[in-house]
DNA sequence: CGCCCTCTTGACTGGTCGGTCAACTAGGTC
DNA sequence: GACCTAGTTGACCGACCAGTCAAGAGGGCG
């Protein structure tokens, strides 16, 4: 059934977020997903392949949320919503699913690195589009601002994770960056 | 001798940067540091203790660099210098030593998380001081801007690592953030 | 019924992991 | 010389790791 594969990916997504990639063993994972080892390797050639599938799962979820968000501030809101949902589910900020995996694996698993890079590229493109439609202050380039917003999102999330700060603080930082670059801070 | 302990920490710092914490085994490490396992455990109670020592090593290096940097733009320059040095040494952006370890371990090793959080706190305090002496645009709070700069640094480094971009791009993002919040962009 | 195919089961493997240990060396001190 | 301490050596440990595999279950289809 499709169900088993999905259970595996969803369990992995949860466990990679609350622990880390390396600290989750295939056996742990199979127990959590109520699946046996052989089944796991029926669906995935390796643990690394699973990581890519987890990225795809999160990317699909993010795509859905971002499609609804119109305007720069809505992007900040979408990030805050997602992080807030994680916070509620896990009791703390657990980091960005992409950023976490990228930070841990991008030096050792180039395929995953490229996979995450593609997510960031798509994300940035959408930000550029939103920037182009916003009333930016003179001299502010949409591409430059989009990259700054993406970095701000990743940085705020990482710092909130390390400091155990609430998701609301993440959103505040992103909004402040946006308003600093608009003609009429809204 | 003191030399052995130092060789271990320096090797670990290098290997954690170019690979990751989990992917470096104690045996790998001992080989690289030309030390035997027993010696390692003479100096460190566990691998986790080593991680803290590595953070301390990097923190000392950063403190030295930052002490010289006067003014907000100098901070951006200091970050660029450090990342540029890593880039030259390793042939690519390998990430922030603190951010990398924090991202990988802060959910599973609370002591390390606190250790890195302290580094960020000190770093931020210095940024606040620099912001207070800078001609900020009206309505910009030094504390808020300092947190944004810290997040921008971490985010830019992480994204550069994932995308394999040069260190110069990191500096550009940080400088753009600063100039967007100054009265007279320099 | 027999055949195929997808999915499942769980025992198994070889290797690596972090960590332990008892024996040893080398200086310093009295 | 006797003793202490700091550092070194490398064999050793049990646990766990990612990954394998042969056997089977069960549904669809002729």
From TrEMBL, chains A, B:
Domain HTH tetR-type residues, every copy: 2-62
Organism: Kibdelosporangium persicum
The protein's name in its UniProt record: Transcriptional regulator
Lineage of source species: Bacteria, Bacillati, Actinomycetota, Actinomycetes, Pseudonocardiales
SUPFAM superfamilies in alphabetical order: Homeodomain-like, Tetracyclin repressor-like, C-terminal domain
Residues in the DNA-binding region annotation: 25-44
Annotated Gene3D superfamilies: Tetracycline Repressor, domain 2 (1.10.357.10)
Keyword Transcription: yes
Keywords: DNA-binding, Transcription, Transcription regulation
